Structure formats: structure tokens, C-alpha cells
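Fold this sequence, please.
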Amino acid sequence: MARQRPCRICKQWFRPDPRAGDRQHTCTAAACQRERHRRACAAWHRANADEDRADRLRRRLGREVTPVVSGPRAGRLLGRWDRAAARDAVGLEVVVVIEVVRPENPVAR
């Protein structure tokens, strides 16, 4: 069983859940759990800023955009593509627009 330790949020001593062991760093208080979740989300957004920006742009564009290339040749014209290389070449916003307007809309990640 893990020994008592101070919560990283409220600094109160607590005994970690035996299933979590040394991985648990905050107590079970609701306020501490909310703060832990807020910090974890903020860290994810800092680490994945491009993905976060792309997701907001996708939501803004929605599904109202009609594909420019359509018909039986559309799949062959667009085919498989390297999303990271396209992002480096033309920018994140253009890549997201291409993903939204693609006929079958497969997102290659």
C-alpha cells in the first residue's frame, strides 16, 4: 500500500488509492480533481497547439462547404496524402480546408 503524501493542489495529506499507488498525486476532493483536470488540459493544449487550432477551424467551417472536385475521378485526384508534409508546405489552415472539402473526407494522421 502506498504511503501518505501531500496533495499537489491543496497540500493536505492523503492516502493514495491502492489501485493507483505511486501514480496518484492529488486527493479525491472535487476541487482538487477539477484543478488537476484543468492543468492536464492546459498542458495538452500547449503541447498540441496546431491540432487545437485545426479542430477549431474544422468546427468553424462545418459541413456546408461543397467539394470542388467531385465525381469518379475525385478519389484518384486526391488519393492518399501526407498531412504533415502538406501542413509544412502550405500551412495548417489550407490543410484543414482540404480535409473538409475532400469528397470522402478520410483524415490521414
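Residues 49-101 form one domain. The beta strands are 5-6, 13-14.
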